[in-house]
Design a protein that fits this description.
By secondary structure, the chain is an all-alpha fold. It has four helices and no strands.
Length: 128
């Protein structure tokens, strides 16, 4: 069990790290501020939540195999709830959510969602 969780955590950390570096490069290329819009917190929270969701899916894979999809959806709902409770009010202080603010949350969300989905499929196919 621990090996699979560690493997997922490391693969996700590398992927999120690479995407974070690319994200910073693009921001730098267009002369935008690198560490505004809670970008570090956003990447960290998305990583932690994705890891927590995977641990839950892995833990429940045997006993609750038939509802893993619902557990996955609950995790996705949790991530959006975190966004709307903690990030959205900060982003909307000036009355509008800019593209830079939205991408600061959505890019790590999408990367983590991709890996969560991929590993959920592996769990459902009993290959992990």
């Amino acid at each position: 069990m621990i090996n699979s969780i560690i493997k997922f955590g490391l693969i996700l950390a590398v992927a999120v790290g690479i995407v974070f570096c690319i994200h910073l490069f693009v921001l730098s290329f267009f002369n935008f501020a690198l560490f505004e819009n809670r970008i570090i917190v956003s990447y960290a929270i998305n990583y932690i939540l994705a890891l927590g969701i995977y641990v839950s899916l892995y833990k429940f894979r045997v006993k609750y195999l038939d509802i893993l999809g619902f557990i996955f959806m609950a995790g996705s709902f949790l991530k959006f709830a975190i966004f709307f409770i903690f990030f959205n009010p900060i982003y909307k202080v000036d009355g509008v959510v800019t593209v830079l603010e939205a991408t600061s949350f959505l890019i790590p969300y999408i990367v983590c969602l991709f890996f969560e989905t991929f590993y959920l499929i592996k769990l459902l196919n009993n290959k992990v």
